Amino acid sequence: MAPSSSGHRISRRALLRGTAAGAGAVALPTLLTACGGPGNEVKIGSNASDAVPRKAFAEVFNAYEKKSDKKVKVNTVNHEAFQEGINRYLKGTPDDVFMWFAGYRMQFFAEQGQLAEISDLWKGFDGFSDALKAQSTGKDGKQYLVPYYYYPWAVFYRKSVFAQRGYEVPKTFDEFRALAKRMDKDGLDAIAFGDKDGWPAMGTFDYLNMRANGYDFHISLMGGKESWTDPKVRNVFDLWRGLMPYHQKGANGRTWQEAAQSLAQKKSGMAVFGLPHPGQQFSAADRDDLDFFPFPEIDSAYGQDAVEAPIDGFLLAKKSKRQKEGKELMKYLATPAAEEIYLKRDPNNIAVNDKASTSSYNALQKKAVDLVSNAKQISQFMDRDTRPDFASQVMIRAIQQFINKPNDIDGLTKDIESQKKTIFASD
Amino acid sequence: MPLTTARRAKRRGPRRFTSRDLAVIGVLLGIPVLLDLALIWGPTLASIGLSFTSWDGIGDIHWVGIDNYKTLFTDYPPFWPAVRNNLLWVAFLGLVATPFGLLLAVLLDKGVRFSRFYQSTLYMPVVLSLAIVGFIAQLVFSRDQGALNAILANKNDPVDWLGDPDLNIWMVLLAAAWRHTGYVMILYLAGLKSVDPSLKEAAAIDGASETQTFFRVVLPTLRPVNIIVGVITVIEALRAFDIVYAINHGRNGLELLSVLVTDNIIGEASRIGFGSAIAVVLLTVSLGFIVTYLVQELRGGKKG
């Protein structure tokens, strides 16, 4: 469910593994992962199943192999399947180091004692901001994550479309709405929109909430501490409802890939996306034409302070028998050099380390760096800022329902609130 | 029949089995019984047990009584749509796809021209997994890029076949029926081949019309096939999963009990207790069909 570029195809292997584990036959994955070599080898659990990131990571690990005379063995699993199987993965025999996400989603597993603490490593880290450290820290104040890259969310558009029609980048929500209305009149779908996979629309909700109610309220809402029936939340849905006529119709039947294609084909004017999403659907020739602006201001008290920028990184499994080797690898992954190798191959993200060179960045990446470094607060994404069961079981459905029937906000928020209570009470 | 009784009586001796026989029987019966207990009854009972807990798969197991069921029935919006869709699935496959398969089988059995060709064409979807059928359905029904909307050429207001929760279940049922029909057809074709032609001839001599012959003579002789087809239809409907999962993870109008179980247990959510409760509901629904079937079978056996 996390923003992924792999689409939503299901992996039968993961399903089988899940089912087998459910039936008590955990022996299979154990056997599969147990046939590793001696101590000069490190195993990495990778969710980078798409071609571009997969190759980019392979280069990083190759570089590490050369540098350290350690062998790195990568175990790649389909992106979505990796997420879905994460519980069973950690409970069985996880690889030593594995890819995961910052924030609540990391803390959730840290709390359950599945992750090895790496606070000692953090003492030696250089080039990571305090915001990054906060996102890598568990609720117990210890560090668990080595952050690797960001991909900020923003409103994407085509420069040529804006130039040709004389559109201007909106700064406030009123200007945004006015622009959407104008695009609508010009025969465009103002806002490209696809939510078939359930998660892409969460980005829009996050931004509306952070702009209207501020970052603190948003995080507290995601943490289950606020009521969803609060007028502030209803206001968010209300603002969204006002925009619905300018969103592409039939979003629940459209993947984000198709939505991004309509932006590339100049059939729609704008789209709320993460940095890697539209780029992949644009042809190489069109990519220079892609640009973005930060989500417009709704309440001047909060301005455009908060930026939604999910961080991906690496975690060390508590169960790993190669803690030392794992930490050494993580230490390397935290260096600017390791990030540079990756980003040269996959220019759809930006480095988290301040010291990483930006000379190979394209214009869009440079702009993204500005966006993130000027942000006063950084959020992760709805499904990373809240409990995974709440995001996947309640919010995906709620937002899809809202897209179908934007008028029943009271019923919707009541529905979410009562489910939230059961889920957050289950601890 | 005195002869058999006599034989049986002869066989009955003071010692029927040697101890070795008993050991062999014990092992041969014991292994399957143990396997059955371990692989079927064990997980089933474990699910029922877990459905009364709030286990998340990692931490301690807490007993919560019937809380999961209460939540399920009152505070879990996808539940009732899933039950409704599962029943709709049974009804659609049972009342539309299965009779249609029978009709095709009868037509083909009469020996229309090119019947081999039709037979293989109709059977072709059966070799595809339902997940693949799901992907094909997306190519056909996608709103922006699907084949159907391209044929209809309704560019200005395309129908959102898979995104509209009032429509998509029917599209998916069509896709599932596309496969099911071929399956049923091939079973009935085999059955029809084995119907004694002299029965039909006798009926014809007695002056029965073709429809009468079919419903009064042929169909009753197909009873064993009917039962198999009935059971298959129910199983297919209750285990339906891959097709909706391939299309949109079984959300937004395509909810099914099997998907809810998977989402809660295998997905990141990891609400194993809650997911087990849904699984128990699915088990209960299935038991309903199984019991009805067994009762009918036993009654039918007595009558026969």
UniProtKB/TrEMBL annotation, chain A:
PROSITE patterns: TAT. Transmembrane segments: none annotated. It comes from the Bacteria. Pfam families: SBP_bac_1 (PF01547). SUPFAM superfamilies: Periplasmic binding protein-like II (SSF53850). The keyword Transport applies. Keywords: Transport. Belongs to the bacterial solute-binding protein 1 family. PANTHER family: ARABINOSE-BINDING PROTEIN-RELATED, OSMOPROTECTIVE COMPOUNDS-BINDING PROTEIN GGTB. This is ABC transporter substrate-binding protein. It comes from Streptomyces asiaticus subsp. ignotus. The lineage of its organism: Bacteria, Bacillati, Actinomycetota, Actinomycetes, Kitasatosporales.
From TrEMBL, chain B:
SUPFAM superfamilies: MetI-like. It is a multi-pass membrane protein. The chain crosses the membrane at residues 21-41, 87-108, 120-141, 169-190, 272-295. The keyword Cell membrane applies. Keywords: Cell membrane, Membrane, Transmembrane, Transmembrane helix, Transport. It comes from the Bacteria. Residues 83-295 form the ABC transmembrane type-1 domain. CDD domains: TM_PBP2. It is found in: Cell membrane. InterPro entries: ABC_transporter_permease, MetI-like, MetI-like_sf. Pfam families: BPD_transp_1. Signal peptide: none annotated. PROSITE patterns: ABC_TM1. Belongs to the binding-protein-dependent transport system permease family. This is Sugar ABC transporter permease. It comes from Streptomyces rhizosphaericus. The lineage of its organism: Bacteria, Bacillati, Actinomycetota, Actinomycetes, Kitasatosporales.
